[in-house]
Amino acid sequence: MRNIRKLVVHVVDAQYLMPRDGQGSASPFVEVDFLNQLSKTRTVPKSLNPVWNQKLYFDYDQSVISHHNQHIEVSVYHERRPVPGRSFLGRVKIPLCNIVYQDDQVYQRFTLDKKWLLSSVKGEIGLKFYISSSEQDQTFSPPPLPTKPYTSPTKVSASRTEEDTAGSETEDSRESFASADQEDLTDSSSECVEIKKIEEVNELVQNLHRQEVLSRPAPMHSIRLRFRENPHEAKKPQSRGANQIHPQNTNHLQSYGDTDLDDFKVKDMNLDLGERWPNPNVGERFTGTYDLVEQMFYLYVRVVRAKELPPGSITGRCDPYVEVKLGNYKGRTKHFDRKTTLPEWNQVFAFTKERIQSSVLEVYVKDKDTLGRDDILGKVVFDLNEIPTRVPPNSPLAPQWYRLEDWRGEGKVVRGEIMLAVWMGTQADEAFPEAWHADSASVHGEGVFNIRSKVYVSPKLWYLRVNVIEAQDMIPSDRNRLPDVFVKANVGMQTLKTNICPMKTTNPLWNEDLVFVVAEPFEEQLVISVEDRVHTSKDEVIGKISLPMNVFEKRLDHRPVQSRWFNLDKYGTGVLEPDSRRKEHKFSSRIHLRICLEGGYHVMDESTMYISDTRPTARQLWKQPVGMLEIGILGAKGLVPMKLKDGRGSTNAYCVAKYGQKWVRTRTILDTLSPRWNEQYTWEVYDPCTVITLGVFDNSHLGSAHSGTADSKDARIGKVRIRLSTLEAHKIYTHSFPLLVLQPHGLKKTGDLQISVRFTTLSLANIIYNYGHPLLPKMHYLFPFTVNQVDGLRYQAMNIVATRLGRAEPPLRKEVVEYMLDVDSHLWSMRRSKANFFRIMSLLSGYFLVGKWLEDVCNWRYPVTSVLVNVLFFILVMYPELILPTMFLYMFFIGLWNFRSRPRHPPHMDMKLSWAEAVGPDELDEEFDTFPTSRSQELVRLRYDRLRSVAGRIQTVVGDIAAQGERIQSLLSWRDPRATSLFILFCLAASVVLYAMPFKAISLASGLYCLRHPKFRSKLPSLPSNFFKRLPSRTDSLL
Question: Is the pTM for the entire model greater than 0.70?
Answer without folding.
Answer: no
